[in-house]
Design a protein that fits this description.
- This protein has 242 residues and is α+β, with helices and mostly antiparallel strands.
- The protein is globular and about 60 Å long.
- The chain has 9 helices and 8 strands.
- The strands form 2 sheets. The protein has a 4-stranded mixed beta sheet with strand order 2-1-5-6, with no helix packed on it. Strands 3, 4, 7 and 8 form a 4-stranded antiparallel beta sheet that branches.
- The relative contact order is 0.16.
Length: 242
């Protein structure tokens, strides 16, 4: 797919960016969204479907469909995941890749969630090594973070890491996309970003970079921590952190 910007398109989004996003979504697999279209079904008209995504995104006319709500049991209740359609996951991945390229170099070295080359095991291993040296440790978990994160501050963080207006435009549309329950009813939202969408991880990391990581480094520089998205372990060390 070519790199050229089509004449008359207000946003410079390459077809290759859409293709690479599709390859990433395919590799991650995942369930169908509200349209019940699987990756295999989507690929039956792959060229046409990818063209529609590129054409609408580059012209500013891409509007996301509702997100399918999937309830996952957990101790003490349920966790609601939001599953976008395959096509919407591709569009979200186009934006997520742009944001990650800009934001990744400034993210805190002790932030591990949803970052290239990092895993939950890396976070646990580093935490375990350092906690043996700590005088005290706090286990921090932000309650219902993905359900309650404020949109205005998410968009402010996004705007700080891109000069592309279409990135902010589409993030705003994804944040406000309704959630569709199993019975078909739509739930309008005024905060939060669906846990399970392709763009939510980088949005969560951007928000928490400013709300927690940078704040901790500025206000409590002697207190170390490891953070995996909305879970963190701050502590004081018996020796000077390195």
């Amino acid at each position: 797919m070519d790199e050229l910007k089509a004449p008359g398109k207000p946003f410079d989004i390459s077809k290759r960016a859409v293709w690479e996003a599709y390859e990433q979504v395919k590799a991650n697999k995942g369930a169908p969204g509200v349209d019940a279209v699987s990756i295999e079904e989507f690929e039956k008209d792959l060229k046409g479907n990818l063209y529609k995504i590129w054409n609408r995104m580059s012209s500013g006319t891409y509007f996301p469909p509702p997100v399918r709500a999937v309830e996952i049991p957990k101790p003490g209740g349920v966790r609601t995941l939001g599953v976008p359609t395959v096509g919407d996951r591709i569009a979200q991945t186009v934006v997520a890749r742009v944001l990650e390229e800009k934001a990744e170099p400034v993210f805190h070295p002790h932030s591990y969630g949803y970052r290239p080359g990092r895993s939950a095991l890396d976070a646990v291993g580093q935490c375990r090594r350092r906690c043996w040296k700590a005088d005290w440790v706090i286990d921090l978990d932000i309650q219902k973070f993905f359900d309650s994160v404020p949109w205005d501050l998410v968009l402010k963080a996004v705007s700080a890491h891109t000069d592309q207006p279409w990135v902010v435009l589409y993030v705003r549309r994804w944040l406000s996309a309704p959630l569709q329950r199993p019975d078909g009813t739509l739930v309008q939202r005024d905060r939060g970003t669906p846990q399970g969408s392709s763009v939510s991880p980088v949005l969560a990391n951007l928000f928490l970079h400013y709300a927690f990581d940078a704040w901790m480094a500025r206000e409590f520089p002697t207190i170390g921590f490891e953070r995996y998205v909305d879970d963190g372990v701050p502590r004081t060390l018996k020796e000077v952190p390195v």
